[in-house]
């Protein structure tokens, strides 16, 4: 992982070149190139098993890979701060842990069973306020709805505020209204903090309303561009068409993007 700007970088950005990942001899990703910049929301779509999550885990350094990931940071920092919202998190319904406790534990504070100081509590309320969830401060984590839990997890992932925010299928537990609200929240954070946001998503119609650009991945980069360009392409129809039409209810003889 290289933290110095190359000649192809412009300002604060991330450039991925020839990224390949293998698991037990099977290629999950093969020689892919991607790039995204500060303030951009980039969507990664594609079929199940196509390697989308492997891209995020490579950026996080959680899995071995070949190729190069260059972080170009204009602020002079040696490496970017990365926030991560995973696809799933196991939460016991009967857990006594409060939202305040959870946020403190997530940042390594070991004494949540003791009395939390007023100052620390106010800090956590302020942290939740960024995602309009300050009213959840005393709720038990296991009692939260899907949308409420996602807001709390998002609050944890952006403290401290990251340069890059990685979201892996962040709306799977939400209904259609909740999905739109969540993505609007993400867009407000992008504007407020000018962070790079990378979203792996199966909710193609929802994410296409908000993304600046989109990559269609199936072990390699099939196509990329604006959401309109990707979703109206023959590559999208070939890779995702039948799945998309079945999920969306659009007719397969219609223009792909027009069916959104």
Overview of the molecule:
The chain has a domain at 13-86 and 164-186 and 196-259: P-loop containing nucleotide triphosphate hydrolases (Rossmann fold, 3-Layer(aba) Sandwich). The strands form two sheets. A six-stranded mixed β-sheet has the order 5-6-7-3-8-9, with helices on both faces. Strands 2-1-4 form a three-stranded antiparallel β-sheet, covered by helices on one side. The longest helix is centred in the C-terminal third of the chain and has 18 residues, at 176-193. It has eight helices and nine strands. Helices cover 32% and strands 23% of the residues. It is an alpha/beta fold and 260 residues long. Helix 5 links the parallel strand 6 (164-168) and strand 7 (196-200).
SSE layout and pairing:
Blueprint lengths: L12 E11 L2 E12 L3 E5 L6 H9 L5 E7 L9 E4 L13 H8 L11 H12 L16 H12 L6 E5 L7 H18 L2 E5 L3 H5 L4 E5 L3 E5 L1 H5 L2 H15 L12
Parallel strand pairs: 3-7, 3-8, 5-6, 6-7
Antiparallel strand pairs: 1-2, 1-4, 8-9
In short:
The chain is α/β, with parallel strands linked by helices. It has helices spanning 52-60, 99-106, 118-129, 146-157, 176-193, 204-208, 227-231, 234-248; strands spanning 13-23, 26-37, 41-45, 66-72, 82-85, 164-168, 196-200, 213-217, 221-225.
Low-confidence stretches: 3-10, 249-260
Coarse morphology: globular
N→C terminal distance:
38 Å
Query: Under CATH, the topology of the domain at 13-86 and 164-186 and 196-259 is which?
Result: Rossmann fold
Number of helices: 8
* CATH architectural group of the domain at 13-86 and 164-186 and 196-259: 3-Layer(aba) Sandwich
Q: What's the overall average pLDDT, rounded?
A: 85
CATH class label of the domain at 13-86 and 164-186 and 196-259: Alpha Beta
Query: How many strands appear in the DSSP assignment?
Result: 9
């Amino acid at each position: 992982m290289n933290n110095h700007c190359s000649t192809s970088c412009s300002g604060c950005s991330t450039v991925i070149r020839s990224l390949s990942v293998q698991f037990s001899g099977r290629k999950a990703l093969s020689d892919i190139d991607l790039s995204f910049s500060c303030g951009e929301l980039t969507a990664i779509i594609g079929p199940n098993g196509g390697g989308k999550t492997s891209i995020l885990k490579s950026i996080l350094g959680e899995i071995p890979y070949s190729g190069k990931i260059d972080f170009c940071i204009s602020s002079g920092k040696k490496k970017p701060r990365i926030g991560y919202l995973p696809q799933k998190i196991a939460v016991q319904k009967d857990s006594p842990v409060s939202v305040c406790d959870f946020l403190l534990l997530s940042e390594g504070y070991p004494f949540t069973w003791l009395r939390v100081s007023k100052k620390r509590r106010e800090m956590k309320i302020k942290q939740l306020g960024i995602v309009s969830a300050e009213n959840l401060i005393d709720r038990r984590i296991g009692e939260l709805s899907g949308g409420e839990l996602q807001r709390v997890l998002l609050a944890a992932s952006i403290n401290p505020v990251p340069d890059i925010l990685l979201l892996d299928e962040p709306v799977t537990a939400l209904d259609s209204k909740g999905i739109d609200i969540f993505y609007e929240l993400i867009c407000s954070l992008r504007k407020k903090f000018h962070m790079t946001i990378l979203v792996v998503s199966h909710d193609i119609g929802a994410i296409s309303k908000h993304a600046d650009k989109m990559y269609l991945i199936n072990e390699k980069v099939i196509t990329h561009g604006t959401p309109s360009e990707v979703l109206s392409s023959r590559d999208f129809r070939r890779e995702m068409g039948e799945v998309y039409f079945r999920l969306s209810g659009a007719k397969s003889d219609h223009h792909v993007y027009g069916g959104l």
